[in-house]
Amino acid sequence: MMKFMSGNEAVAYAMKQIDPDVMGAFPITPSTDIPEVFAGYVANGEVNTEYVAVESEHSSMSVCIAAQAAGGRAVSATSSCGLALMHELLYVAASARLPISLACVNRALTGPININHDYSDSMGSRDAGWIQIYAENNQEAYDNFIQAMPIGEAPEVRLPVMTCMDGFITSHAVENIELLETGAVKAFVGEYRPEHYLLKKENPLAIGPYDISAYYMEHKVQGAEAMKAAKARILKVAAEFEKVSGRRYGLFEAYRMEDADTAVVLMGSSAGTGKAAVDQLRGQGVKAGLIKIRVFRPFPGEELAQALAQTKAVAVMDKSEGFSANGGPVFAETRSALYDLKNRPYMVNIVYGLGGRDIRVEDFERVFSRLADIAASGETGPVYVHMGHRSQENQE
Amino acid sequence: MISAKDINEKTPWQELTPGGEIYEAGTARLYNTGTWRTDTPFFKQENCKHCMLCVPYCPDSSIPVKDGKRQDFVFMHCKGCGICAEICPFKAIEMTAGGEPK
Fold first, then answer.
1. Are B11 and A207 a contacting pair at CB < 8 A?
2. Element of type H or E holding A375
3. DSSP letters of chain B?
4. Fewest CB within a 10 Å sphere: which of A187, A325, A331, A352?
5. pTM, whole model, 2 decimals?
6. Is B18 in Cβ contact with A218 (below 8 Å)?
């Protein structure tokens, strides 16, 4: 069924089709539509969900943790400062191994205050032990949310899942998307049947107890192993999803990479613009390619290294500033992943698009032009640069 | 299902419960937290009228009662907070320095 929907509406609709037990949510731009639309479904009796209106995101994630621990399915949605306010609880959810599903509508973190898109919010949560899956467009935002529970709830995984989409660009732009039948969604997601839960009256249970140093590290190793196991599970769920939807997903999308000499690596909606640039360059005989990272946690390091092994020069494009003075977070992961290759491409990092700064096809063409120079000369020049900002050096 | 008494500081990560979940109640009984004490209450039985005021005031489970009679302290969970000595109307509890019972 084809429907005209914003990214937020699409995710709210996916939630309606899933009919989770509990939603704990607090409004924050640009994710507000998700709890707002979903609250409408609750008010109209279209879902059986207990909707808990809370006073903050710290509380919305606390509600989700309690509900999931009790044996229910809990969902939430947030953005930016909301995700930051959840930060402490994100770790609690992951370490208690509670497979909550959270729709994160990415927005720049305040300082200075800004409501537009970049990944500074979810990049701040990248080490919390959550699976992170990023969407390029509305269709992917819908599809990723439907895959979240089968991924996170698998016994070998048992981790919370954050599905991310670009604030405003994806959350508010309206596109025609293909929806699954509600029966098909329910069958795909299935029933949530945890082995242990607080409301299991036959068996008292304590969740999240104090962990002294003689045990804490073992529990962190468990989480790390679960994150490794998540990779295979994500691919298995994607294969199942393809059977019901006809749409194919992997850990990342390799676009025109078969014989690419130069490539960009990025996430989210910028991939659409990047693909347009790749197509133009291909038309001119330039062997350009693009990799769009879909799954950032677990990070597909080995698979990325393989996909980039035959390229000559690569630009990793970060839409968040990590303030490491050594490049953004996607660059750090990608460059590290390629270290084990015998022959590595040259690699640079371009930080762009902060706080909703636009990126155009011409910008990508400039990136590919620089990559062609690097491939020809063997000289990378400055490895970590910003693009699209005003500077005395680029005043025309 | 692994029980708390079968988990100890030699258990490998593969055999621990996910996230440290505990599948039974009352496992604090297995864990001695009385080692943190720097002061220790001393029960002066001759002054005690068994009024039972100290029992609910104890923030832990260190004052057992049997047949309506207050028994001597059980120190496994006593933190030496001194609330019992403070609340006792009959000077039947005295705080002594150090973690060891007098």
1. no
2. helix A361-377
3. ---GGG--TT--GGGSPGGG-B-SS-GGGGS--GGG-SEEEEE-GGG-----SHHHH-SSS---EETTEE----GGG-----HHHHH-TTS-EEEEESSS--
4. A325
5. 0.94
6. no
> Is the sign of the CA dihedral A86, A189, A151, A204 positive or negative?
positive
CATH architecture of B32-102: 2-Layer Sandwich (3.30)
Answer whether A215 sits within 8 Å of B16, measured CB to CB: yes
Structurally, chain A folds into a number of domains equal to 2
Alpha carbon of B89: minimum distance to chain A alpha carbons (Å)? 36
Residues of A in contact with B13 (CB under 8 A): 218-219, 221-222, 225
Distance from the Cα of residue A249 to its chain's centroid? 13
What pLDDT was estimated at residue A191? 96
pLDDT over 70 (residue A396): no
Quick: pLDDT tens for B36-84. 899 999 999 999 999 999 999 999 999 999 999 999 999 999 999 999 9
Q: Please tell me the distance from the alpha carbon of residue B55 to that of residue B37, in angstroms, as a whole number.
A: 19
CA angle, A134 then A123 then A59, to 5°: 95
A196: which chain B residues are within 8 Å (Cβ-Cβ)?
Answer: 21, 23
Token readout for A318 is 């970060």
In this structure, the answer to whether residues A235 and A327 fall within a common structural domain is no
Cβ pair B25:A214 closer than 8 A? no
Interface predicted TM-score of the whole assembly (ipTM), two decimals: 0.90
Q: Which domain holds residue A381?
A: 252-394
Specify whether A10 is located in the same domain as A36.
yes
